[in-house]
Amino acid sequence: MRKKIGVLFRKTRKTAHTFERLQTCKHCHTYHVLWETHCGECGREYQPIRSIAAAVTHRYAQSRFLLLALFVSLAVLFAKTLPQLLAACGIGLLLLVLFFLIQKKYGSYERDGQFLAYITQEQSAIRQALVRHLEDVGADVKAGRIKEAYEKTREIGHFIQSDTIKIRKIMFLNHFILRKDMELELDTLVTSTYDKDFVEYLREVVKVQPSLVKKSVLEYVRRYKPYILLQENGGQLIGQVAGAALRMKPYVEQYQDLIIEFLDYIPRDRLLRLAKLARTHGQEVGWELLYAATKKQVDTHYTFDPDFAGIL
Question: pTM of the prediction?
Answer without folding.
Answer: 0.80
